[in-house]
Specification:
The complex is a heterodimer of chains A (221) and B (440). Helix content of chain A is 35%, strand content 26%. Chain A contains eight helices and ten strands. Chain B is 47% helix and 25% strand. In chain B, helix 10 packs across helix 13. Classes of the chains: A alpha/beta (221), B alpha+beta (440).
């Protein structure tokens, strides 16, 4: 499902060159739930961004869902992200001016799905995270755990093949973190969604199928 | 999609109330001021009765008689030739002083010399307005009276509510007839209609009202008067063969420069009385617009006055429009920068550059439309209060819908532009960087 071959990512400024990813080779199969761990600044989020086509590698090949999107137009990449990938961010990144349901239907909006169908699918996604009764609320009216569940609903509403979660429980207490983790595991088990999750929490990582460890941009386990 | 944009635009407007207030105030206030300026220009220079012919008007307002004294001036130069001083004397005939008299014209001088010019299709003479005290129900009111000829009504196209203008025979026979403005009918007779045949006592003489005209809505002196009577009643119409209390307006048939030149040529042929103290006669024909500009900024050359005033006005309007536009751009830049992580999220979930651009431009159009409509309402209210309070005297302002339409288009253009530039910049931002800039 996801294949990385000799992937490097180097950030260059006028004075400093920082290697964020160093010769990463990685294969993640369909339906796997993989967690990535490592100390701060080791390149976990960079790796996730590269897999999610949010950032380009300096060198190497990235193949996601059978597509190698190097040199593709930004429009094609956007379409690919919209249809194949779902994102969950540590700080939720919900749009404060939109209601819960409007936030959730965002990916469908860019897929040109009709308004009625958008509403139905978004309501279903909210149902699956237990927040159907909050669809007309605004993000500011929700707790941290609820915000992250809305973010999960947004990530899954388009039924993507791959979910990329960047520390989804990082801003939550343990109870809420467990609730969010349960939802992700259920998605993985029931829908066979491939999930790649960056985490600092060993307990959460242990619940996944496979654990990758990064250190200074290199894969160590 | 657009419904979503409208919803979002409305939410953004209602969430950031101070920003919304500043932005809407900027757009609506600018539009209101521009509309007021245009309404004023339309009132003064638009094609409205009785000034429909103003673009063809050449005005002869003042005549200058002057005496220039010429003296022989001797200049003695000292030169040295081989160490010996030599004196070289030159003689010059130069103006060594002058005295002048500037005044309005003697009406006969105007009629005899400028009435039948080739490039002119019509002329009229009229006196400067005279003030008369009259008594109505034991209270004193002042009436402005214009003494004019019968052609006045062809040059200035007043709207007659009832009755008629006076004719040549009534002017020649010094008939005691008058055309009055509606405001005088109201203040003197207490009615706005049905005043024909009634009389107004002026300086011990009764004038019969034969015509009633609408009040003019612009400001030129000869037309904002209360009462018009044949000029032959003006007792002090001349104090010499040249000077008096009359001006002339000539309709130039669209060829202003030719008419001005013809007037100057005709003036050169006026011979001065040998007994006269003066030896030069100067007239200065100017277009109506030049005269207007000269009253605001005096320059001996009326064309320079008009040019200066036009550029000054253009500069002020531009400046007035430019400042809020810059402010709008600045506000939009900071607003869009503030939403960079939203752009990041939208792009992560599949929004293309064009969709991001469209969203922000659409939001700006909605905001600008609201500002524009508020501007229209403000302008409407401001014009109502200005007219009602008569701050501008006789000038009556009207909303110019065509100008409003163009102002609105310009507002939307700048609204769109001010949103487009930062949105374009942000749409190109790397998603990762956009998401890092702030937290939603």
């Amino acid at each position: 499902m996801i294949h990385l071959k000799n992937v490097n990512k180097v950030y260059r400024t006028k004075t400093i060159e920082t290697t964020a990813l160093n010769d990463i080779n990685l294969s993640i199969e369909k339906g796997e739930f993989v967690s990535i761990m490592g100390p701060s600044g080791c390149g976990k989020s960079t790796l996730l961004n590269v897999i999610g086509l949010l950032d380009e590698p300096t060198s190497g090949e990235v193949t996601v869902a059978g597509e190698q999107l190097k040199n593709y137009s930004s429009k094609t990449t956007a379409k690919f992200r919209n249809e194949k990938l779902g994102f969950i961010f540590q700080s939720f990144h919900l749009i404060p001016d939109l209601s819960v349901i409007d936030n959730v239907e965002l990916p469908l909006l860019y897929r040109k799905v009709g308004a009625k169908e958008r509403k139905e699918l978004s309501a279903q996604a909210l149902e699956s995270v237990g927040l159907r009764n909050r669809m007309d609320h605004f993000p500011s009216q929700l707790s941290g755990g609820q915000k992250q569940r809305v973010a999960i609903a947004r990530a899954i509403v388009g039924n993507p093949a791959i979910l990329l979660a960047d520390e989804p429980t990082g801003n939550l207490d343990s109870q809420m973190g467990n609730e969010v983790m349960d939802i992700l595991m259920k998605l993985n088990q029931e829908n066979k969604t491939t999930i790649v999750m960056v985490t600092h929490d060993e307990n959460m990582a242990k619940k996944t199928n496979r654990l990758l460890r990064l250190y200074d941009g290199s894969q160590v386990a | 999609m657009f419904k979503n944009y409208i919803k979002l635009a409305w939410r953004v407007l209602s969430r950031k109330k101070f920003f919304t207030f500043i932005m809407l105030f900027g757009i609506s206030f600018t539009l209101m001021i521009l509309m007021l300026i245009t309404a004023y220009m339309q009132a003064e220079f638009g094609s409205r009765a009785p000034m429909k012919n103003q673009d063809d008007m050449v005005v002869l307002e003042y005549i200058t008689l002057q005496r220039v004294n010429y003296d022989t001036i001797a200049v003695v130069d000292t030169l040295f030739e081989n160490g010996v001083a030599v004196y070289d004397t030159t003689y010059d005939y130069k103006s060594a002083g002058r005295s002048m008299n500037r005044s309005y014209f003697n009406p006969d001088l105007l009629i005899d010399n400028f009435r039948d010019l080739k490039t002119v299709k019509e002329t009229t003479i009229f006196s400067t307005n005279s003030l008369f005290d009259v008594f109505v129900n034991n209270s004193k009111i002042q009436i402005q009276v214009n003494h004019c000829d019968e052609r006045f009504w062809d040059v200035f196209n007043f709207e007659f509510i009832e009755g008629r203008p006076f004719d040549l025979s009534e002017v020649e026979q010094q008939a005691h007839v008058a055309v009055i403005a509606k405001k005088l009918a109201k203040s003197y007779f207490g009615m706005e209609k049905g005043v024909l045949g009634k009389t107004i006592e002026l300086d011990g003489k009764n004038y019969e009202v034969i015509g009633l005209v609408e009040d003019p809505t612009s400001s030129p002196d000869p037309i904002i008067t209360d009462m018009f009577v044949p000029y032959t009643h003006q007792v002090s119409r001349s104090n010499s063969d040249y000077l008096g209390s009359f001006a002339m307006v000539l309709l130039a048939n669209g060829r202003m420069e030719k008419t001005k030149n013809e007037i100057l040529f005709a003036a050169e042929n006026i011979s001065l009385d040998k007994q006269s103290h003066f030896n030069e006669l100067i007239v200065s024909p100017k277009t109506y617009h030049e005269m207007y500009a000269q009253n605001l900024y005096y320059n001996e050359d009326p064309e320079k006055s008009l040019s200066f005033v036009s550029w000054l006005l253009f500069g002020l309007i531009s400046l007035f429009a430019l400042l809020p536009i810059l402010n709008l751009i600045n506000l939009n830049v900071s607003r869009i920068m503030d939403r960079s992580s939203e752009i990041g999220v939208r792009k992560a979930f599949g929004a293309t550059k064009n969709e991001i651009l469209t969203q922000f431009v659409f939001e700006n159009i909605i905001q600008t439309l609201i500002g524009g409509l508020l501007g229209f309402v403000l302008a409407f209210l401001a014009i109502y209060f200005i007219n009602d309070s008569k701050i501008l005297g006789s000038i009556v302002l009207e909303i110019d819908l065509v100008f409003f339409f163009y102002s609105f288009i310009i507002c939307i253009f700048f609204g769109v532009l001010s949103g487009l530039l930062p949105a374009f910049k942000m749409s190109k931002l790397q998603i990762v960087n956009a998401l890092k800039t702030n937290q939603l």
